[in-house]
Amino acid sequence: MTKGDPKAENRRKQEQGIRMLFFLIATASIITLSLIVLFLFMEGLPIFKKVSVKAFLLGKLWYPTSDPPDFGIFALIMASVAVTAVASLISIPLGVMTAVYLAEVASWRLREVVKPVVELLAALPSVVIGFFGMVVVAPLLQDLLNVATGLNLFNAALMLAFMSVPTICSISEDAIFGVPAELKEASLALGATHWETIWRVVIPASISGISTAVILGMSRAIGETMVVLMVAGGAAMVPASLFDPVRPMPASIAAEMAEAPFRGDHYYALFATGIVLFAFTFLFNLVADYVSNKYRQVGAATL
Predict the structure, then answer these.
(1) Which residues pair with 71 in a beta bridge?
(2) Number of Cβ atoms within 10 Å of the Cβ of 232
(3) pLDDT, tens digit (0-9, with 9 covering 90-100), for 238-291
(4) Where would a tag sit more exposed on the chain, N or C end, judged by fewer CB atoms within 10 A?
């Protein structure tokens, strides 16, 4: 390849153009995200001129339209945490175990059938899942468990777990498939059974990807709006049991933003609630990045 080769020059210009295109797309994404975060903080911080941060985060009364109004979102925070925790207890074992089964146990034909079905569940609109929880699951829970209402914390957790399983399963399966084959072969050669190899070699080697999948699934659960708006019950109170109606932060923002006066205290309080929700999801992503980097396996020799 000579310096004056026209083909080499054209190829170099094409590579520079593609590099510049990718740079512009990445820059536009960063700028867009930064503007969204800036707008969120600009619209949320003014509420703290009327109420302290401590009273806002730890106050148990949320009556933004009363006189005087109460802007305490502790009940909303606890509802979001409780729904996410219960959903995680359901979705994490199901998602991870399904991934292990598809990657290490299932036959090729069964995997080709089950995996597309699992991934198809991730494409279901959240309003459809919420409608299913409201029309089918809620009456069923009310009849079987003899509770006051089927629109409660447990129903919301079930629906969020249903939504989180495909995410956890898909990412975990990719991580398990990425385990070097020589690790499994060495384990089997030393006399370990298939199940011992899975639990003592495959899962520890893929723990980085599995942990990332779990945390991303939890992030989706805590930020989901439509499902919790439809099936959580809508009561802004600290839950005392699994079957109490609750109102998580996303549901409160979606339900009240349309009726909040523009640039009023109620409006600012809802945006401040969005800041708290953003902080939760940001923390989850930081933890996912930390776990992914700390336990990342680089080749077979690093196990």
Answers:
(1) 62
(2) 30
(3) 888 889 999 999 999 988 988 888 888 999 999 999 999 999 988 888 887 787
(4) N
